[in-house]
Amino acid sequence: MLIESDRRFQETLPKVNNRPRLLVRRDEAGKKDRIGPAGRLECSGSIVYYSGQGFGIQRGEYHQLAHRSVSRHAPQRGAEVPARWWALVEQIQTLQAEYASRSEADLFDEWNALRYRVQSGESLTDLLPEAFAIISEQMQRHLGMTPYPVQYLGAIAMHEGAIAEMQTGEGKTLTAALTLCLNALPELGMHIATANDYLAERDARWLSPIYHSLGMTVGTVTATSSMSERRAAYECDITYGTAREFGFDYLRDLLNSPELKTSTSPRRQQLFGQEQTGEDQGLLNPRSPYMVLIDEADSILIDEARTPLIIGQADALEASLSEVCQWSATAVARLAESEHYLDHGPQKGMELTEAGRRVIRELLLQPEAPQSLDPGTAYLSSERALKVQSYFQNGRDYVVREGKVAIVDEFTGRISEGRMWQNGIHQAIEAREGVEITSPTRVGAQTTVQELFARYTRMAGMTGTAASARSEFKKVFGTPVITIPTNRPGRREQLPERVFLTAEEKWTAIVEETAVLHAQGRPVLIGTRSVNLSKQLSERLEAAGLDHEVLHALNHENEATIIERAGQSGKITVATNMAGRGTDILLSDDVVAQGGLHVICAELHESSRIDRQLTGRAARQGDPGSARVYLSLEDEILTSGLGAEQAAALRADYQRSGRNLQSAVRYFYQAQQRVEKRHERQRVELVNRISARRQMLQQMGQHANLNAH
């Protein structure tokens, strides 16, 4: 007998021996297996089939039948959610149906009643079904949207302190709002860290009608926020911002702590360059850290966690520094690799050989050399200039904007406002670009992403690409990853990679494929690794007569408009990582009929998660779409992962032998994996280094995050 079966749905399933598809076989020993959305089913010696309305059990005893389906769409992934979560989803939907007939005033009173129950000691988990039902009803009224069952699952997972892995396009923004509202009930200050300022402002603005309908306040903290605006934002029930801004505000508050608070403190004058008056006085966030929800958790907690958050202490700009940096930028043109210097890689940098030092000493004897420059300083300055020459590119690592060098974040493609490289690198770049040289900085206060979020009582997150970092999430943060099933079957067609011998051939092929799809009326999104490559591709498209739009760090002010149009028929959009995480490209009906959005990944990034986020822009929420990766044996990822020598040997081998280039695909992914492993080691080293430093400073009776004295 098949229990709770839907015979019509069974007819659409693949058949095995004339039966619906077998999902789980339980052995006679009673070993527990995961079975789709129902979690673990307590039975023995049974064969379980999905029926469309639930799970049927044949030939065996059962103690608890799994849930009745709450969505007409069968979950598309092996879910890792307990059966009790699905029961909660049914409760939420039943309650929301009851709330649908209630007035706004009634819903407001119901929400306030939940607030009082929390203050009386009732747990948030017990209140979850009622809270989610009220929030969902307000979402329907104010946004015209009701969460799907899988969105409830994601919100429950985050409430219970997990990283919810939800595929791109599954509605993480709405999912986050459920968790935020519930956990803001205790009025302790709920924070959400987004991937960038744009998403923080966008999401807070879009969801504000929901928060306001519940009597909750919402604020945002961005790079351009004033001190008074930051203070007001932290007083809100829900605060949107970035990990970077939350971290810097924590450091600012440390520097504004009672023992450093007097405006005449030399240390404060060192760190801030002036006495603190007016709006700069007082703590930005006097509350104890309660709970933080991290959007794009893999990007924030893993990809970007190799870089510590540092507030610099301004050094006096020596009159000779500009002259020394400019002289070194010119002098290194006389040096040749191997003969005059050794390249030890981007981490260790360059080392002058004896022959190289001899050249530098000879150059110091020339009339144009700074008179006060001694050989030791000249060696160090030249090694920095060589490192900049080899490893820092204008248009990739930074841009020159309004006469200043601005760092471009490698993971988001956006300008990192106010950030500077240390140890003289920033000044060496400024000298090379011929802009005004800024004062160097020393570390005044610092923390890491790991330290920052460890301060919170509770932490959770969500992302579309967490599975590959599952072990690191658990090891470093103690946070499990729960994969949430998709709402609709995925329809993205992942086309085979195309490999070319040279970058020139690759870019030509990208333009050709774009032209074909454009003629068919399909929109095309082309993702590049840098501002420079975006500009170069734009020139090629223009030469081919293809109208297009470009999105990168230098024209971010048009971001919302460009993304809004990217799904229109025949639209061509060239973008850096800015069009990856968090962007939702909506398709018109005619585009859906033509096959949806096509995404071209023009080159592998150093993190595979960035590539998956890019291709995930296509085929969202059951829409059709396709994606393809383009590769050339001149791509940067081969040099980064395999080393310059091995990458050159690989190119020479394929050029000489004439072998099928498709066989080279594996080398690109091997190189990417090596880079990811190297970055993982760097994150571990950073954690260990910061931990050792913390212990040393604590033993000396000093604060672990404060350096200047």
Automatic annotation (TrEMBL):
Residues 494-676 form the Helicase C-terminal domain. It is a peripheral membrane protein. Residues 67-662 form the SecA family profile domain. One of its GO terms (biological process) is protein import. It catalyses: ATP + H2O + cellular proteinSide 1 = ADP + phosphate + cellular proteinSide 2. Monomer and homodimer. Part of the essential Sec protein translocation apparatus which comprises SecA, SecYEG and auxiliary proteins SecDF. Other proteins may also be involved. This is Protein translocase subunit SecA. Residues 259-284 are annotated as: Disordered. The gene is secA. Residues 153-314 form the Helicase ATP-binding domain. The keyword tRNA processing does not apply. Residues 259-276 have a biased composition (Polar residues). It comes from Gimesia benthica. Gene3D superfamilies: P-loop containing nucleotide triphosphate hydrolases, SecA, preprotein cross-linking domain. It is found in: Cell membrane; Cytoplasm. One of its GO terms (molecular function) is protein-exporting ATPase activity. GO terms for cellular component: cell envelope Sec protein transport complex; cytosol; plasma membrane. Part of the Sec protein translocase complex. Interacts with the SecYEG preprotein conducting channel. Has a central role in coupling the hydrolysis of ATP to the transfer of proteins into and across the cell membrane, serving as an ATP-driven molecular motor driving the stepwise translocation of polypeptide chains across the membrane.
